[in-house]
Design goal:
The complex is a heterodimer of chains A (291) and B (307).
Chain A (H helix, E strand, L loop, with lengths): L4 H14 L22 E10 L2 E11 L4 E5 L6 H8 L9 E9 L2 E2 L7 H7 E4 L10 H11 L6 H11 L3 H4 L12 H14 L4 E5 L7 H14 L4 E5 L3 H7 L2 E6 L8 E7 H6 L4 H7 L5
Parallel strand pairs in A: 3-8, 3-9, 6-7, 7-8
Antiparallel strand pairs in A: 1-2, 1-4, 4-5, 9-10
Helix pairs in contact in A: 4-5, 4-7, 5-7, 7-8
Chain B lengths: L9 H8 L8 H36 L5 H5 L12 H32 L4 H14 L3 H15 L1 H4 L4 H25 L3 H8 L5 H29 L3 H5 L20 H9 L4 H34 L2
The chains are: A alpha/beta (291), B mainly alpha (307).
Chain lengths: 291, 307
């Protein structure tokens, strides 16, 4: 998807409408990326609980801006729990809470005076099973922006978001149709589009393609490669080949014994994780000795 | 049993191989048919009784239903008796009861389902709401008498339509709450998560997604609840609805009667003319019921079709 400078200029206007903290995007001729336009995240000693059960313990990780970080590991090791802590969705579950420090850029998102609602606009999430709203395709994309106070041209925002999610061409003639009228892969891209419509800094994806067919999976992966030019992406995936294909950094989650909390066993550049990991459990997992 | 080599009876073969199972299924199919017939008869009994009742009433009542009947006041002369004040009273009651109980019921259900934490107190409230749905309506009448008529006459003017409507609202509130809660429960959590993940507050998710999705179920419950309210006589009599009234209600604070009460009052009279009037009253009551239900069904369809 090639963006022309004219479209970048329109973004700048919309961006400053939505968020005061965001630094002004510098126009670039070569790449469409916003210079300094998105933030990374840093996690310190994060533990996550469901009531009295500790699901994740002591995670320390640095997520760099404009990268795709993949989180892999066997089932039940806390990857989904961890990623949901990153945008404070974990605490939506009754009796669930997290301890530790997570920063978006320089801002502690768990600080007492931080509003989780505003955090969740800035850190978006795509779930495993596509969950479009039972509204029209247009409304699906527009709703999030509208409740967050978007005042500018909504038609333009909807089109831009759908283009960035690689869905515009397929739905441009049926924007009034229900979100459920689409195939699974299209629904997931619709969810991505509505996440993009609120201009997040970071996009979290919890196994976004695991419920989809290979063709849709390919389209989603292509979209992700484009997305990292504008945003920071963190993805949980069970598909190791996918992690190896698309990510820059990989984190491996692991539990030693049943009932233990999951921990981040190893974290490194993807090439290194898949060719020469340091810990034997990581190597066993990426070579498929257990799954 | 053929045991010579070369003469094998396939029928016996099968029962020898699967010796534990009976080959013939005709007995089982017969039982299947018998059960089908039994449940069909059970359904038919209910339907036929209902049909006979309705036809009987219609035959007696519909000829008597006339403009004169609808616009006349009750009288000691059967031919001149009409349902005008009772009809207006019932319409006032239904409208007021709906206005009071539907927002309260849906609001309570939203609170219990979406906001309240799962504490012993919440569970206690939930159990008791189900119990309240089964309390006899006369008890609500007594409650209404105590609170709305005797304790709050300054607000309700004592034995007024408002007291009656408030009493009926209490009566049907549990039904609306339960139906709305069930409707909210069927909405998958993925919808809520999708909303929160976009940086929405709980109210925004409820208002934009959950309430529209729950409205068909909530309205079904409301239909059932209002149907019950229209047909109530005993609690209304306790809170002061008149059994004989000669003026039409003037507003929510006025004295009143209601269709079921008027019908009951006529049936208690010996003259056959009043029996006919009662039958016509029942038909009128059914029509009011149908009209109220139609409004709710239309609303429900509107929300079900909406994308």
């Amino acid at each position: 998807m090639v963006m022309d400078p004219r479209e970048t200029k329109e973004e700048e206007v919309a961006l400053s409408d939505l968020s005061q903290e965001r630094p002004e995007a510098v126009e670039q001729e070569e790449t469409p990326a916003k210079q300094g336009g998105t933030l990374g995240m840093s996690v310190e000693n994060l533990s996550a609980f469901y009531g009295s059960f500790k699901a994740v313990t002591d995670v320390n990780i640095d997520i760099r801006p404009h990268t795709i970080t993949a989180l892999i590991g066997p089932s039940g090791c806390g990857k989904s729990t961890f990623i949901r802590c990153l945008n404070r969705m974990h605490e939506v579950i009754p009796e669930a809470y997290a301890k530790g420090c997570i920063k978006l850029g320089d801002q502690d998102i768990y600080a007492k005076n931080t509003d989780p609602v505003s955090i969740r606009r800035r850190i978006g999430m795509v779930f495993q099973k596509p969950n479009p709203f039972s509204k029209s395709i247009y409304e699906n994309v527009a709703w999030g922006a509208r409740i967050n106070g978007y005042r500018d041209d909504m038609d333009e925002l909807v089109e831009r978001s759908l283009r960035r999610a690689a869905l515009w061409d397929e739905v441009k003639d049926k924007l009034k149709k229900s979100g459920f009228d689409l195939s699974g892969g299209q629904q997931q891209r619709l969810v991505i589009a509505r996440t993009l419509a609120v201009e997040p800094e970071v996009i979290l994806m919890d196994e976004p393609a695991s419920a989809l067919d290979p063709v849709s999976t390919q389209k989603i992966e292509d979209t992700m490669a484009e997305l990292k030019k504008r945003y920071t992406v963190v993805i949980v995936t069970h598909n190791m080949q996918q992690a190896a294909r698309i990510s820059d950094y990989t984190g491996f989650f692991y539990i030693e014994n049943m009932g233990d909390p999951g921990r981040l066993w190893e974290f490194d550049e993807t090439n290194k994780m898949f060719s020469a990991p340091e810990r034997s459990e990581t190597e066993d997992y990426v070579t498929g000795r257990f799954g | 049993m053929a045991t010579e080599h070369g003469t094998r009876n396939p029928q016996q073969d099968r029962s020898e191989q699967g010796g534990l199972f009976k080959t013939s299924t005709s007995g089982r199919h017969a039982l299947d048919w018998l059960f089908l017939i039994l449940v069909f008869v059970a359904t038919m009994i209910g339907l036929v009784v209902l049909a006979v009742l309705l036809v009987d009433i219609a035959v007696d009542g519909v000829p008597h239903l006339s403009w004169k009947f609808i616009t006349s006041f009750p009288s000691v002369i059967p031919e001149n008796s009409g349902i005008y004040p009772a009809l207006l009273g019932s319409l006032w009651l239904v409208a007021l009861t709906a206005l009071i109980s539907v927002p309260l019921g849906i609001g309570a259900a939203v609170y219990l389902e979406e906001y309240a934490a799962d504490t012993w107190l919440t569970r206690f409230i939930e159990v008791n709401i189900s119990n309240l749905a089964g309390v006899p309506s006369i008890i609500y009448g007594l409650l209404g008498l105590g609170i709305f008529v005797n304790l709050l006459p300054s607000v309700t003017s004592g034995e007024s339509i408002l007291s009656g409507a408030l009493t009926l609202s209490l009566l049907i509130l549990p039904i609306i709450i339960i139906a709305t809660r069930e409707a909210l429960r069927t909405i998958p959590n993925a919808v809520r998560e999708g909303g929160y993940a976009l940086g929405a507050t709980r109210w925004e998710v409820i208002r934009s997604h959950l309430l529209p999705m729950a409205l068909p179920g909530a309205l079904t419950g409301t239909i059932l609840a209002l149907s019950r309210a229209i047909g109530e006589a005993a609690p209304l009599i306790v809170v002061g609805a008149a059994t004989y009234i000669t003026f039409a209600p003037t507003g929510p604070l006025s004295n009143y009667s209601a269709l079921p009460i008027q019908i009951f009052s006529w049936i208690s009279q010996p003259q056959p003319g009043f029996q006919t009037a009662a039958a016509a009253g029942v038909v009128a009551l059914m029509i009011v019921l149908l009209l109220t239900n139609s409004v709710a069904v239309m609303l429900r369809n509107k929300y079900q079709k909406r994308v």
